[in-house]
Structure formats: C-alpha cells, structure tokens
Amino acid sequence: MNKILAFETSCDDTSVAVIDTNYKVHANLISSQTTHADFGGVVPELASRLHLKNIMKITKAAMIKAEVDFDDITAVAVSVNPGLIGALLVGVSFAKSLAYSLGKPLIAVNHMLGHIYANKIENPDLEPPYLALVVSGGHTELVDFKSYDVFKIVGRTRDDASGEAFDKVAKLLDLGYPGGPIIDRIAKNGDPEFVDFPRAMNRKDVYDFSFSGFKTAVRNYLESHSPDYIQEHIADITASVQKAIIDSLVSKTINYARKSGTKNIIVAGGVSANSLLRSEMQSKVKKMGAKVFFPALEYCMDNAAMIGAAAVQKLERKEFADLSLNAFSTKGVRFI
Ligand code: KG4
Ligand code: ZN
Q1: What does the pLDDT look like over 314-323, one tens digit per residue?
Q2: Nearest Cα to 305, choosing from 40, 124, 46?
Q3: Which of 73, 260, 266, 285 is geometrically suited to a Cys-Cys bond with 293, CB 3.0 to 4.6 A?
C-alpha cells in the first residue's frame, strides 16, 4: 500500500498527515496557532515563525501516530498555493528537503483543490462531473468540474469571501476569531428572521457573490442599536447574519445546478462545516433529485489529510514536481 506524507502550512494551521492511496487517513495532526486570536486575524510573520518552530515536531508525532517510518512513505505532498507566502514557503522548503534527502517524489498540491479532495476521504468513489462550492476564509467560488482537470469557475466573490464575512461580523460583535464556528454555535438558539440583512446580487442568472454590502448593513445595524440590546439579542442577530450568508451560497449553487443539470454537488473549505449550510443544502438538493457531499467535519478546516488526498491521483499519474518547486500566494483553483 502506497502512503503519502502530506504537509499543509498555507495559513495558521501547521498540519502533517499520512494517507494511503485508498484515501485512508493514518494520521492527521493539526497544530492551530491560537496566538492570532489576540490580533483578531492572522499575523503572517507570526504564522511563518510558528510553522518553522513546530513542523518537525508535528511530522515526528504524525509518523508515530501512523506507525510508519520514512521507508514506508512513497511520496511527499505539500500545498503550494494559494496562501500566505511566508507560511507556504516553510512547508514547501521542508517538503522539498525531505523529498530530496529520502529520494522520494514530491507532489505539489493546490490548497483549494485539497479542500475539494477532502470529500474523497469519506467518498473515495466520488468522481467528476460535479459542481463544487468552495467556501473558506479567502475563497468563495462555484466551480463546474467536467473532469478532474477540465473545470470552469462559474461564480466567485466580487469582494469578501464567505468565511471572511463570518470573521468580520464576529469581529464587529467582539466574539473572537475565527468567527464562523462561534457564530454557528451562538446562532443555534436564535431566530434567523429577526433581522432581514440584504442578500447581494440576488438574481437568478447571476452566480457571483458579494458580501461587502451585507457587512456594511450589519455594521449600520449594530451602530443603530445599544450594546445592551445587541447583547440581549445576540443569538437572534448572529442567526440572522448566518442565514443571510448561507441563503446567498445555497441559492446561487442551486440555481446553477438546476440550469446546468448537475447531479452531484460538493461543498469544500472551512465554511462547509457550517450547520445551516449543511441542512439547507441537503433539503434543497433532495428536492431537485441531486446529491450533495460534505467533507467530514474534521476535514473541513485546513488540514494535511486533504492535501494528501489531492496528491493520490497525481501519484498514480506520476505527476511529480521537481526540486525547483516554488510557492505562490495567488488566489484561485488551478492545477500546478
Ligand atoms: O478553509 P479554512 O480552514 O481556511 C482557509 O483556507 O481560509 O477556512 C477558514 C474559514 C474561516 O473564515 C472560518 O470562520 C470559517 O472557515 N468557518 C466557518 C465554520 N467553521 C469554519 N464558517 C461558518 N461556520 C462554521 N461552522
Ligand atoms: Zn483552506
């Protein structure tokens, strides 16, 4: 059985995983950098330094957990874009050195494709064509995959990403970072109809997203109510915020799926952990006789298992990177 040692350091999680070519995860360790919470967002230099400090330790721990040594590893995989450049460079340099010293092939993985392939861990037989809704802290994209390497981005955000919208609203409400999981939890006890926040670009044939007007509407709402009132209705306000963001993600995905006749929809990226997104998508997709797939909760946020999962087919096709491999901060879903 071929095993891949995979690295993910694109943002504020240092993660190392061992996954085999049947998509079985033998270890997936994630060290989340809590330091950034004090700053209300990720501080790039701190992120790079913490990756550098921890990557060796986490690699050793992941290999112990997976009960493998370097001889059992067939290839080394690493996310190379998009992300914070300094953070990516730590993972890429480390993976390159390891591949070189072990004499094993190196596989470059696009982080967003990693999120998409996280779905393979639960559903190894899932193959394109499918429509992917990619929703994270930096991305909101609707990607129509005809095959694994023929795809078209049919919708994208014109400003903030959906995860960013959760994070920014959480910051306005002083709830902490990252905002998505916190809002998801508080919103469970609230009334989603309490405030009718705007859904931008709400037209049937428009598949692009926009969240900056929504963010301004939330800010205006908060400025026009007293802190006591906001505190008293925090569950209702967060539920309304969540509903507005999720409504826009679900309606555009469903509209495009109907138009294109897509039968399989997959959701990927940190926001795919959102409970309302999961339930709304399930019920809408069921009505149209299609299927929707989500990664298991543990593979929604940044992790190296998804990077390994995206490397499996590349290993099978022998699509290896050479040792001049570089990292890129550039956005977007593309193959390297
Ligand atoms: O994919 P990810 O871990 O990192 C990036 O590649 O950006 O996504 C992080 C984003 C953050 O914006 C976070 O607030 C959001 O995913 N997120 C959620 C939930 N869990 C994470 N958003 C809404 N609901 C959640 N349960
Ligand atoms: Zn991510």
Answers
A1: 999 999 999 9
A2: 124
A3: 266
